[in-house]
Amino acid sequence: MFEFISHLWQVFMHRPDHWAIISIIPVTAFVTWAHVWMALKMVFYPIQFWGFHVGNLPIGWQGIVPRKAGRISGIITDNTLTKIGSLSEFLEAMDPEEMAKVIGEQVNHELENLIDEIMLERNPVLWENIPYSIRRRIYEQAHKQLPAVLEHLVTELTYNVESLVDMREMVVRQMEADRKLMVRMFLKVGQKEINFIWHISALIGCVFGLFQMIVWFLVPWHWTVPFWASIWGFLTNWIAIWMVFNPMYPHYVRYPQFFRRTHNHQFPWIVPVIPRIGTYNIQGAFMKRQEEVSDVFAKVVTEELITLKTIMGEMMYGHHKEKTRRIVKQHVNQIMDTPLVRTTLQLSLGLREYAKLKTDLIDRSIEITMVPVSDPAFNASRARKIFQMFRDRIRELTPNEFQNLLRPAFKEDEWILIVLGGVTGFIAGTIHLFVAFL
After folding, report:
1. CA atoms within 13 A on the CB side of 431
2. Alpha-carbon distance 291 to 137, whole Å?
3. Which of 327, 230, 240, 323 is nearest to 40 (CA)?
4. H helices of 289-413, where?
5. CA-to-CA distance for 303 and 2, rounded, in angstroms?
6. What is the pLDDT along the chain (438 residues), one digit of tens a residue?
7. Which burial class, exposed, middle or buried, applies to 137 when counting CB atoms under 10 A from its CB (0-12, 13-18, 19+)?
8. Nearest to 403 by CA among 231, 287, 251
9. How many CA atoms, within 13 angstroms, populate the side-chain half-sphere of residue 370?
10. Are 135 and 111 in contact (CB under 8 A)?
11. Closest CA to 80 of 237, 293, 241, 385
12. Under a CB-based contact definition with an 8 Å cutoff, are residues 44 and 187 in contact?
């Protein structure tokens, strides 16, 4: 056996193209690694379309994720976010009573200026000439009723949030408005899987390169170099993406273990151990990390996607804003329709102007309410209240539900990435043929 292998080696080394044949393995590994890196970048970048248009035909490229932000975010919402919980649960977990208190403090602080501003717009001469004692009583009445009114308002908005806010529409609109957020979310959640695809591609390239080297050794036809390079390009991208999500469920196998990886991937990375039987989980790289990903995804969602600011913004300015205004109007009227305030303002302004005044007050109340809920610190405090709920529920997702946190980013136009691998492989194989074999 040894003599046969030695004979083959001697035959191989006497071939004039033996160095070119040996170069197939490292070249295939490098080209595979490079084109997979390029394909991964093209999933997320550029954020904005890069290129030009010939009529209505775009000539150029935009990252798959930012280009299809609306569709991808809709899939994630339908397949995952709606299974984690409802908006009413999220708002309830944010502590509506405390929210009402914080909003009340802000509105209470601005209340007198708010009343003055609106009245001066409506009838400045009249308001400036009303005795200060009457104005003072109006202020005091509003201050007195405000805390209870806001508490009831926030409670009712929380109770009706499902009819006031469409979570899918809210998420899709936010992602389409801020495509960088979409890319940032996917990169935070799946950075390890992206690195895995990139690095495993070089190993896959080595295996394919060995096969191609044997093919050339047996059948030294020039066309086989670009042909097989193209095939490897197709297969590498497909295999690498497949390995991220498959197998979906864990499959444990036992094997003789002589080494172990060091903690935190510290040098020397692998150290010897007393021989023993180890257990290895054959499962998709992303699927293995459900517990770790739960922390990352919950943090991104609660701090940047489903926040008090986004929920309230959609509630106040979204497609169901008129229904929200009716609820706000009911509660604001509790202050405006007290005998003192109603009588004073109706006599001063007249019925028509009094009705317009209430409309203005509702608009300004909504604007002032959005000030505290837009505060980053206040949003961060609400995010902490729902983070654990988000994290625990993501951990409880089934593997099929869990994969939808990242899978849509690659599933959309995945064929483009696979075809791209074949095209770049063919180009690289052709260059290698001319450089090394001709």
Report:
1. 9
2. 58
3. 240
4. 290-300, 308-317, 321-336, 339-349, 351-373, 376-395, 399-402, 407-411
5. 65
6. 666 666 666 665 666 666 666 777 777 778 777 777 877 787 788 888 888 877 778 788 888 778 888 787 887 787 777 777 777 888 787 777 777 777 777 777 777 777 777 677 766 776 677 777 777 877 777 777 777 777 777 778 888 888 888 888 888 888 888 888 878 877 777 777 777 777 777 787 788 778 777 777 777 777 777 787 788 777 777 877 787 778 888 888 887 877 777 666 565 567 777 888 878 778 887 788 888 888 888 888 888 888 888 888 888 788 888 888 787 777 776 666 566 566 666 555 566 666 666 676 667 777 777 777 777 887 888 888 888 888 888 888 888 888 877 777 667 667 777 777 778 777 777 776 776 655
7. middle
8. 287
9. 14
10. no
11. 293
12. yes
Contact 327, 157 (CB under 8 A): yes
Residue type present at position 243:
M
> The whole model's pTM is what?
0.67
- CB-based burial label for 178 (10 Å; 0-12, 13-18, 19+): middle
Q: Strands 270-282 and 251-261: what pairing?
A: antiparallel
Which two three-digit tokens encode residue 75? 């899939």
| Residue 329 tokens, joined | 């109007």
247: phi then psi, degrees, rounded to nearest 5: -65, 150
Buried-exposed string 57-84: b where 16+ CB fall within 10 A, e elsewhere = eeeeebbbbbbbbbebbbbbbebbbebb
* C-alpha–C-alpha distance, residues 368 and 362, integer Å: 10
Return the ∠ at Cα 326 (arms to 370 and 124), rounded to 5°: 70
Structure tokens belonging to residue 206: 């080595």
- Best CA proximity match to 91, nearest among 361, 308, 331: 308
Q: Which two tokens stand for residue 341?
A: 């305030």
